[in-house]
Amino acid sequence: MHRVLPLIAAVALCSLACERKSPPPSAPAPATATSEQKAPTEQGPIVIGMLGSLTGSEASFGTVVRDGVQFAVEQVNAAGGVKGRKVELRSYDTQGKLEESVAAAKRLLTQDRVVLILGDVTSSGSLAIADSVQAARVPMVTPSSTHPDVTKKGDFIFRTCFIDPFQGAAMARFARENLKLERVAVLHDVKNASSLGLSEAFTEAFKKLGGTVVAVESYSKGDSDYRAPLLAVKKAKPQALYLPGFYSEVGVIARQAREMGLTQPLLGGDGWESDRIFELAGGALEGSYYSSHYSEDNPAPELQRFIASFRERYGRSPEAASALGYDAAKVALAAIERAKSLSGPDIRDALASTKDHPGATGTLTLDADRNPVKPAVILTIREGKRRFAAAVTP
User: Fold this and answer.
1) pLDDT tens for residues 333-365?
2) The predicted structure's pLDDT at residue 222
3) Do 123 and 146 meet the contact criterion of CB atoms below 8 Å apart?
4) Are 352 and 130 in contact (CB under 8 A)?
């Protein structure tokens, strides 16, 4: 049972995108790397890998995750590194394509001899590479893949973000208890595992809470005209529309919805977390709500230290994805430091023992299923800015 804390009572927050309880559509066969895997070097820098969408339609998500990861590595190296050695980060661009995720993972495993992989940043990408990483017995920590099946791939697969069932149910409870909504519609992306997973979790929880889902419509990643499903939504006369997609489509959908006369609040998930969404939507998201991993309004000392140092390094405030990347890297590097050796099994065991890690997105403990126990937040968009609305605890 999740409990939504009203804004006035909320003191803690939390530390974002990803999929249905079956593999993503058209996922390529995973690369087989076991026989080619080389042992990490015993001297020189400790090499870790990172993969995510650094170009393409989802680039502003992957690049901000990468910035957080890189920032954490810089801080650790400035403090003396790990086990007395510098950490070297190898980052590869997946372009938001599953086949590129598979190729990047194989390169990290067979050529770069990494001791750990951070990524993929999306659930579909993580699901596509997890079997190969598990077979190679190299730990993988995804900062932002929220689909529940990701960590079920094996005991070397970890995450530092909350999972979709929690996120979707949290928004359903907020919609019923805080917004007092009785009738909602859902519009999800059939090519996005995160969108499908959130849709399923939200729908199930909203119905259990006594609400009615009056329409479930769909679109596909890359579409540009969403008027047909939006027309079906309009005819169903919901009080709000749950739109758990990525910012790249959500911004356009929001604008087209307003042009068609849909004035209801839009509700969403952590896939909205990109400043680019405001450019795409114009003012169409005003008064909307979405679930995320942190809020700059949280006075937690660890978060405020992160925000201040990140601003100094990059000249801008961090987005939630940067905080997630930062936390994933810090958790991973702390585990490598604690590990008995640089072998995959030893690092895996150290990761599994992570408890009460003071992260930018909240204090984090990894449970027996290698998922974090941590809070989430609901943000609202007012005057073109994100504002804290409520905190949600597991």
Assistant:
1) 999 999 999 999 999 999 999 999 999 998 899
2) 87
3) yes
4) no
Residue type, 64: V
Contacts of 25 (CB under 8 A, 6+ apart): 190, 191
Cα dihedral 23, 143, 331, 155 in deg (nearest 10) = 0
Token reading at 346: 């030893």
Q: Is 256 exposed, middle or buried (0-12, 13-18, 19+ CB in 10 A)?
A: middle
Return the closest-CA partner of residue 199 out of 160, 169, 228, 219.
169
Task: Give bridge partners of residue 183 from the DSSP assignment.
Answer: 212
Under 8 Å CB-to-CB from 84, ≥6 apart: which residues?
none
| Widest CA span in the chain | 65
What predicted TM-score, i.e. pTM, was given to this entire model?
A: 0.78
Let me know: does 206 contact 175? Beta carbons within 8 Å: yes
Return the beta strands (E) in 164-277 as ranges: 183-189, 212-219, 240-242, 266-268
**Eight-class DSSP state of 343:** S
**Whole-angstrom distance, CA of residue 301 vs CA of residue 359:** 10
The pair of three-digit structure tokens given for residue 192, joined into one six-digit string: 């996005």
The Cα–Cα gap between 81 and 89 comes to: 12
CA atoms within 13 A on the CB side of 101: 28
CA dist., res. 390 & res. 298, Å (int): 11
